[in-house]
Amino acid sequence: MIRQRFLKLFTYLLFLIISLILFKKFNQYYSQNDFAKLGLIIILFINFLIGSFIKSFTKYSFIFFIYFFLILYSLNSLIVYVDYNNLPQKKIEKKLKAEDKKYDKRKLIEVVKDERLKGNDIYPYVVPREFLKFNKKEIPLTPISNTNYVACNEFGVWKKIKTDKFGFNNEKFINSFDILLMGDSFAEGSCVDQLNEPANLFLKNHNLNTYNIGVSGNGPLLSLALAHEIKEIVDFKYIVWFIFDNDFYDITLETKSDYLNEYLKKDFIKNNYFSNIEIQNNIQKKYIEKNLESFKSGFSLKESLFELKPLIYRINKLINKKGNEDLTNYDKKDFKKIFDKMLYLYKDKGIFVVYLPETTCFKIRSKECTRRFDELKNLSNEIIFLNFFEFLKRTTNDYKKMYALGQDRAHFSDLGYKYLVEFVNKSIENK
Question: Fewer CB near the last or first residue (10 Å), C or N of the chain?
């Protein structure tokens, strides 16, 4: 009898806890399309509801709870095992080991701490995209200016960059040049040696002075905002804008920002962002230092095993029939608004929009990637659209050589960036 009462009390307590979680988290999970978490909570809610108020089901409710979690964590552990052995870091390490090369196993935050112990003022590379989740009236548009960062490691060595006075990855600011380079990490030249970054290749190989305003994680609307803010500061001939495959996802995030949407209005002047950059610098420094331990790169035991993140991700992927990086239901009207605003701002400049493929374009998504480029191209007759995906298919028999160590979901290799710059340069010469 005592055991039954205890079981009843315990079941009722769990019901109250689950009810509270459901009440607090329902809107959040629903708005984020996190149907996996929402579904798991609802299942537990129904289970403990029945167990709490129907006496004959209390025992079975508790048994269901135990087996439910055993199954969940067993499945998740299996996924974690498979994922861990297929981590990009593991693959890179294995590949470099076969070539008798070293791989820096340290996580990003460990590199930052080691550098700081040496007396170097350096930060983990935190970019504006990080601040979109806060839905603030104002967000940073660039990383911290005149600052050293630890950026990425796709070749076995952690790349470090230093931003210029406006927060961009350039050796120094120049106000008169040939090409304004826009986009995300591909424009920035992520992970390769500085000499092989696109901006430097344009100068070294084609004598085209290039100023890079690309920032890792930037989607189309963040790129537009930067182009808007820098307009009165620089003078140039051409705009080269790299649109990577994940920008079709990024645009759905950025258009939720009221602050960024202001830049789509023709009567919007600007926020004088670069005149007040020190304010944003201080905001970012405080934020990074406060959250320093959270900027970890690599495998997380807590997230992977205890928080069921891999399993939840896959359930959401099945429900939504798409992954977070492959969200295809973007609104083409948003792209058109952005392109129209660029033409309004820079009507006297030659604008080249270059579509960059993800590795899956060469395997299972060829038709989709071709369709995405065609959709972009049909949005404007005044912009010159270039398809780097089709160029690579015609030019190389081994697309993997174009990506860092031939890895999936990686940035370009030295060779990939070289091909990209040559491809764009030919189009500029033929204009």
Answer: N
